[in-house]
Amino acid sequence: MSRSIVVSLALSALFLGITPAPVLANQDLVETGRLLAILLDAGRGTVGANQPLINDAGKGDKGFTPEVFEKQLTEKFKARSGVDLANLKAAGVPEAAKGLLPELVAASKKTVADNQANINRPGVAYKGFTPAHFGTQAAAEFSAKTGIYLKQTTQDSLLRNPKNKADDFEAGILKKFSDASYPRQGDKILNETVDGGKAVRVLLPLYYGKGCLGCHGEPKGETDVSGYKKEGAKEGDLGGAVSVKLPVK
Question: Which of 27, 101, 176, 181 is the most exposed place for a label (fewest CB within 10 A)?
Answer without folding.
Answer: 181
